[in-house]
Amino acid sequence: MKSGSLPAKADPQKQREFFKSVLSPLMTQAREGKIALLFMDAAHFVMGCDFLGYIYGKVRRFVKTFSGRMRYNVLGAIDFLTKRVTTVTNDTYITSTEVCVILDKVAQAYKGKEIYFVLDNAKYQKCATVTQKAESLGTHLIFIPPYSPNLNLVERLWKFVKTRLRTKYYDDFVVFRGTIDDLVESSEEVNRTIIEKLISDKVQLFDNLIPANKNTYRVKLQAVS
């Protein structure tokens, strides 16, 4: 049995309507070459705090964690069609300044194309500074419904990066940071086949769930004709 998480405050009907009336048409336009469609969000990687490993045996082993809290922040926008990722990175915080920088970088890279960004409602993204910057560049900001990370496909890229990252212990921040950069950049070529499956028009929606008990749901089986 495979399990997954359902955001507690998610509105399945609003998500379905957003996908049907906004997101799906944008995906179609992107495939037809009419627009550039990018999914944008930030990921935060803390060195030494998220290592997972499994060794089967009778004796339990422990790995010493890194002493300190060194964090690598990556604000990324992935192209729905080409899987190219544009990033802005730092080891402090992601703010509206970084969002404006990435809007500039994408605008320069996609000159002559109408650009759409799909993003969530984080305050550093949904603010006057970013809105004004987007307007000045002629780009469009499409905000997903609240509590709907499943609609922002760049989250799948971050999950892929974190899964690969967790297979090794890091105690050198330069190596840690470089590994993340390499994994992100691999989406366009080295790991393109994997990313193609993750970043597609197959979006997880929740309006086909039926309650199994108070906090558990299962997918409604479709009738076979």
3D architecture notes:
With 225 residues, the protein is an alpha/beta fold. The strands form two sheets. Strands 3-2-1-4-5 form a five-stranded mixed sheet, with helices on both faces. A two-stranded antiparallel sheet has the order 6-7. It has six helices and seven strands. The protein has a single domain, classed as Nucleotidyltransferase, domain 5, CATH 3.30.420. It is globular.
Please state the second-level CATH architecture.
2-Layer Sandwich
Task: Assign a percent range to the helix content.
Answer: 25-40%
What's the story with the biggest beta sheet? 5 strands, mixed
Low-confidence blocks of residues = 221-225
State the shape. Answer: globular
Oligomer: single chain
CATH topology, which one? Nucleotidyltransferase, domain 5
- Summing up helix and strand content along with how strands pair, one would put the structural category as alpha/beta
Mean pLDDT: 87
Number of strands: 7
Q: Indicate the CATH class.
A: Alpha Beta
Short summary:
The protein is α/β, with parallel strands linked by helices. The protein has one domain: 2-Layer Sandwich (Nucleotidyltransferase, domain 5). The protein is built from 6 helices and 7 strands.
